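Problem 12. The chain below contains 187 residues. Write out its predicted structure in token notation.
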Amino acid sequence: MAVTSDLDHKDDRIDRIASAIRVIPDFPKPGIMFQDITTLLLDPKAFKDTIDLFVERYKDKDISVVAGIEARGFIFGPPIALAIGAKFVPMRKPKKLPGEVISEEYSLEYGTDKIEMHVGAVQAGERALVIDDLIATGGTLSAAIRLLERVEVNVVECACVIELPELKGRERLGDNPLFILVSAPGA
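Solution.
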């Protein structure tokens, strides 16, 4: 995998993170180069480096909410939230949260889906980081942003471990900034 990053300086941790991500050809269907983060999670040093890089970036940005997108955002979000003193808010697929929810629909290649969060999980004026493992087309991230903005939360930034730049997901985020650790060209 060619390695590029949004970091403004060379950091050896990026190479360790990129090399810990397994690429599986033709999964889940022919032509897809699946970016498998389970191997990153099996490498404690690379996993710690991943969390540390995000914490270093966000620790002084007055973020009160880390919103993690189901399911892999649930892996990276909680340790970041704990380290920066923020709450973690799960952004879930429909009918997974037990209480009253607010939802946002988004388009898929074939059809639509929704993302939900509990009503009252965030308050107007809070500052949020939205986290997921990967950005492809940007549909889920843009829905999470719209959902948070509907309840007057300020989305400071979105963050992902991996970006598939040829799918142009950044474009769907509008003016919302995106920070990534590893770019996977040709994925």
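Discussion. The beta strands are 22-25, 33-36, 65-69, 87-91, 101-108, 111-118, 127-135, 154-163, 178-183. Students who got a different answer should revisit the alignment rule from Section 12.3.
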